[in-house]
Write a structure and sequence with these properties.
78% of the residues lie in helices and 0% in strands. It is an all-alpha fold and 304 residues long. Helix 11 (223-242) runs antiparallel to helix 12 (246-271). The protein starts with a helix and ends in a 5-residue tail after the last helix.
Length: 304
């Protein structure tokens, strides 16, 4: 009897979630599962030491939300198309095209099939987002901290795959490898430093990627997570900008973002499970930022 009640409750919960949300959860979940399987089946887990085990999850944490966001291009096409600048033609085409590229790239990254090519194209894609949409939007309202936050988030989303491309570059191309890694370091470090300052100034707002939303009252610790992230971001971001112990700095920032994801955004995702804008997107954005930071850690040199 109790088993039937549990099954009925699960069915009701699923029916209460809109189809577009379920599609994003499903595609992102498949990519996440494949990424985990590759890590353990390929034998990377037992070889990694201490915090390097966390770095292994960078591609998974980045790719799963990317696939979920790519799915939104198919389920919310008019909304996505409306974000494209007016001077660019064929808005629906670009919405579908970018969505397909996101999903394809996500599978490529977690399966390591043409991962370097996919990472390079993703880095270019998000950099174009910054140059063509985010920075022009921020310049229209330069005092809007949220517009700058979003522009820097996209810059970090560009830096993550750029770091992966650097890590996958052949050892014989040391100059190119170093250049890609250095650019990626600045692309990720600048948002970290800015986010650190913002979290000190706005302790009641959600941490990790400091957006306008206030941290819900049902989150245990509440502002503690914001100030914790602020301290780690300030230290880790400064080390990354200075080029000191970069692998350690990026790893600790990534671990902090993961803790924030588990303590703050997973509960938000559970409570707002039927919403993309208030639920899944918050969970996905922060997890993807975590993945970008860990991808950077994987491209940084090991300390002796």
């Amino acid at each position: 009897m109790s088993g039937n009640i549990v099954k009925s409750s699960a069915v009701m919960v699923l029916l209460a979630i809109p189809r577009e949300v379920l599609w994003s959860y499903s595609v992102g979940g498949v990519v996440f599962a494949i990424g985990l399987a590759v890590i353990f089946l390929r034998g990377d887990w037992p070889k990694a030491r201490e915090l390097d085990k966390l770095v292994l999850f960078g591609p998974v944490f980045y790719a799963a939300p990317l696939a979920a966001f790519g799915t939104e291009h198919f389920t919310l096409t008019p909304l996505i198309a409306s974000l494209i600048p007016d001077w660019i033609p064929w808005h629906p085409f670009w919405a579908y095209f970018v969505g397909a590229c996101f999903i394809t790239a996500a599978f490529s990254i977690v399966t390591c099939i043409q991962a370097r090519l996919a990472a390079t194209m993703l880095a270019l894609n998000f950099f174009l987002f910054v140059v063509l949409m985010d920075v022009p939007g921020w310049l229209q309202t330069p005092k809007d901290r949220i517009a700058l936050t979003l522009a820097l988030r996209e810059l970090a989303f560009s830096g993550g795959p750029l770091a992966l491309a650097a890590a996958l570059t052949d050892a014989g191309q040391q100059r190119l490898k170093h250049t890609l890694a250095t650019v990626a370091r600045y692309f990720v470090a600048l948002p970290i430093v800015f986010y650190g300052v913002e979290q000190f100034l706005h302790g009641k707002n959600v941490p990790g990627v400091p957006l306008e939303r206030l941290t819900p009252d049902y989150i245990h610790g509440h502002s503690l997570w914001t100030y914790l992230a602020a301290v780690v971001y300030a230290i880790g971001g400064a080390m990354l900008l200075a080029g000191k112990k970069t692998r350690v700095a990026a790893t600790w920032v990534g671990l902090t973002v993961l803790l924030v994801e588990l303590a703050v955004y997973v509960p938000i995702g559970v409570v707002e499970r039927a919403s993309l804008g208030n639920g899944l997107n918050y969970v996905g954005d922060t997890l993807m930022f975590c993945g970008a930071v860990l991808l950077l850690a994987g491209a940084m040199p090991r300390e002796t």
